[in-house]
């Protein structure tokens, strides 16, 4: 898979746009840097945390949650390949001060409350 563009970088995570060579689909690839520094966790604990996140995300199916296509490790680089969703991140919308129309805001709150009340 050839990584094309890095569009988001956090302390230990980077996101890339890539093309899946097997089926020609454009995907998002989340690259996780498993660094023990400042985490208080061992490398093995970080790997377990990554695997737990990947399993949990892979089990979710909802229109507002991206689909996970693949999870793995290659030469010490851990990654999650997922559905690419075009558009602005919620954080960028909030940072811009953009105001949501009332109807949209109520819909977002409804979805949040439905998720917050679901218990396993």
Strand order of the largest sheet: 1-2-3-5-4
Q: Helices and strands, in N-to-C order?
A: EEEHEEHH
The number of E-state strands comes to: 5
Average of the residue pLDDT scores: 81
Helix content: 25-40%
Shape: globular
CATH topology: Phosphorylase Kinase, domain 1
CATH architecture field:
2-Layer Sandwich
Could you name the ranges where pLDDT drops below 50 across 5 or more consecutive residues?
Answer: none
Counted by DSSP, the helix tally is 3
CATH homologous superfamily, by name? Phosphorylase Kinase, domain 1
Q: How big is the Rg?
A: 17 Å
The number of domains: 1
- Look at the helices and sheets and give the structural class: alpha+beta
CATH class: Alpha Beta
Task: Let me know the largest β-sheet.
Answer: 5 strands, antiparallel
β content, as a range?
A: 25-35%
Distance between the termini: 36 Å
Summarize the structure.
With 120 residues, this protein is α+β, with helices and mostly antiparallel strands.
């Amino acid at each position: 898979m050839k990584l094309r563009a890095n569009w988001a970088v956090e302390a230990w995570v980077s996101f890339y746009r890539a093309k899946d060579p097997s089926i020609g689909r454009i995907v998002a690839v989340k690259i996780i840097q498993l660094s023990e520094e400042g985490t208080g966790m061992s490398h093995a604990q970080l790997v377990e945390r990554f695997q737990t996140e990947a399993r949990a995300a892979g089990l979710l199916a909802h229109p507002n949650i991206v689909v996970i296509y693949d999870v793995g490790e290659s030469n010490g680089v851990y990654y999650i390949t997922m559905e690419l969703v075009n558009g602005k991140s919620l954080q960028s919308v909030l940072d811009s001060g953009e105001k949501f129309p009332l109807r949209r805001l109520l819909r977002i709150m409804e979805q949040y409350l439905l998720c917050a009340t679901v218990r396993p």
